[in-house]
Structure formats: C-alpha cells, structure tokens
Amino acid sequence: MTGFTVTDHAHMARALRLAEKGAYATRPNPMVGCVIAHGDEVVGEGWHERAVERARGATAYVTLEPCAHTGRTGPCSEALIEAGVARVVAAMRDPFPQVDGAGFAKLQAAGIAVSSGLMEARACALNRGFLSRVEQGVRTCRMLTDPRC
C-alpha cells in the first residue's frame, strides 16, 4: 500500500522495535507494539495496554490489527476508541479468527481512519510463529480454546 509518509514509517519502525520486546513471552499470542503520536511527537508507546490521555486526536501506529475480543485483556480496539485516537496505522491485518478484520471494522464504525500494510513484511517476519499457528489452525495451544487468550 502507498501513501504513507516518512513520519508514518518512523513511528511504525518504532512500534515494531517495541513489539520485539515481547519475544519469547507472548506465545501463543503475537508480539504487538504501539506508538501513539501527534505528527512527529510521540505521546505514548508500549507493547502492553496503557492508558494515555494525550492520545485524543492522535495517530496510533500498531504492528498488528487491534483485537476486537476479550482475551487476557480487553479489546485493544475499544481502548483506542475510548482514548479518542483519530487514526490507526497498522502494519498488518490479524488473521486470528476472533479478530480478522473485526478490529478495523470497530475502529471505522467509531469514525477512526484506518490504514494497513505499512512495513507489513517486517511485521509478518516478527510474528511468523503466531501466523503459522493461526494458518495451520493449531488447536493444541490454548490460543483458540481458552477465552483468556
């Protein structure tokens, strides 16, 4: 996908670096990072849920489509809506059946602009184990059977 700015690339690169901090600790779930920014100014970032009041009207850069279901935490899409972000830029869509497009749909229904595909190959490489498990429908891990995941 085209139309992304240099700033978009810089923030997504940071979100991907943050996501890497979850290596070996998130399985069976994916590694996800997020940067919330007003233009060049980063107002919040993390790789786990964190309330950021200054997020209102900002852009959230996420490495994976925000979830739309309750697992170990509440839906990330709801947290972004409640935070009042104006735009979400995602590296990739989440193929997990409970998310797959539903996170983007929730955000768009709330009037939030959504773009995806920025640095997608890097995000896919980062989560190749998660993607493989989802694509193969591996049910031995709790991911598809445990509502806390």
Verbal overview:
The protein has 149 residues and is of the alpha/beta class. It has a single domain, classed as 3-Layer(aba) Sandwich (Cytidine Deaminase, domain 2), CATH 3.40.140.10. Helices cover 32% and strands 15% of the residues. The protein has 5 helices and 5 strands, in the order αβββαβαβαα. It has a 5-stranded mixed β-sheet, sandwiched between helices. α2 links the parallel β3 and β4. α2 packs parallel to α3. It is globular. The chain starts with 5 loop residues before the first helix and ends in a 13-residue tail after the last helix. The C terminus is likely disordered.
What features would you highlight for this structure?
149 residues, alpha/beta, Cytidine Deaminase, domain 2, 5 helices, 5 strands, disordered C terminus
CATH topology: Cytidine Deaminase, domain 2
Q: From the alpha-carbon coordinates, what is the Rg to the nearest angstrom?
A: 14 Å
CATH architecture: 3-Layer(aba) Sandwich
CATH H-level superfamily:
Cytidine Deaminase, domain 2
Number of strands: 5
Neighbour order of strands in the largest sheet: 2-1-3-4-5
Structural class by SSE content: alpha/beta
Largest sheet: 5 strands, mixed
Compute the average pLDDT: 85
Name the CATH class: Alpha Beta
**How large is the share of residues in beta strands?**
15-25%
Principal-axes geometry comes out as globular
Helix content: 25-40%
The number of domains is 1
List unreliable stretches of 5+ residues: 140-149
Instruction: State the end-to-end CA separation.
Output: 30 Å
Order of helices and strands: HEEEHEHEHH
Count every helix, treating DSSP H or I runs of 4 or more residues as helices.
5
